[in-house]
Design a protein that fits this description.
The protein is α+β, with helices and mostly antiparallel strands and 88 residues long. It has helices at residues 10-21, 70-80; strands at 25-28, 34-38, 41-47, 53-59, 65-68. The two termini are 21 Å apart.
């Protein structure tokens, strides 16, 4: 993930760590959004100026583009990813 000079907010850090734990690829965009991808899924998480999670746009199998709340994003990460054991 590229470092754009600003630390990740708590919400972005949590989402980044959770996505990686379930095997998703995470990219930090220049606008401070996060793009999470795995197989046919792409989720773009957007954050408020204070760093709080705003919403995510998701494209999955079938091509539907939907807006997801944080709980829904976590559900997708868990359902379609696979948990990886922690590294020592």
């Amino acid at each position: 993930m590229a470092d754009h000079g600003l630390p990740l907010s708590h919400d972005a850090f949590y989402l980044d760590a959770t996505a990686r734990m379930f095997g998703w690829h995470v990219a930090r965009e220049t606008d401070e959004s996060l793009v999470l991808s795995l197989s046919e899924w792409t989720l773009r998480a957007l954050f408020w100026h204070d760093g709080g999670f705003r919403y995510a746009r998701a494209k999955g199998p079938g091509g539907a583009d939907v807006e997801l709340a944080l709980r829904e994003v976590l559900d997708v990460l868990e359902e379609y990813g696979s948990a990886k054991p922690p590294t020592p």
